[in-house]
Amino acid sequence: SRADYAYRLCTSRGARPAEVAAIRRLLEEKRMRLRSGELKAGEIAFSTFTKPADLPADATPADLAAWAIVARVLLNLDETLTKS
Q1: Where does residue 83 rank: exposed (0-12), middle (13-18), buried (19+ CB within 10 A)?
Q2: What is the pTM of this model?
Q3: N or C: which end of the chain has fewer CB within 10 A?
Q4: Span 49-55, average pLDDT
């Protein structure tokens, strides 16, 4: 439901099943890269405006970083940039 909600916010329409599947694959791929240390969660998830202490109790830096990457991808879709 989170993937569909994010897609709806970016494109003003619900995600198709194939699009949700693509988002889930991207999210899992990034989670694996974060777990392996290939990507650094702190560098992706936090800035001068966001700090680890600001995270909800049930969230992890890796989860925040993975969703930040997904959000960046969604915000760069042609459909997002050229809503009609």
Answers
A1: exposed
A2: 0.83
A3: C
A4: 77
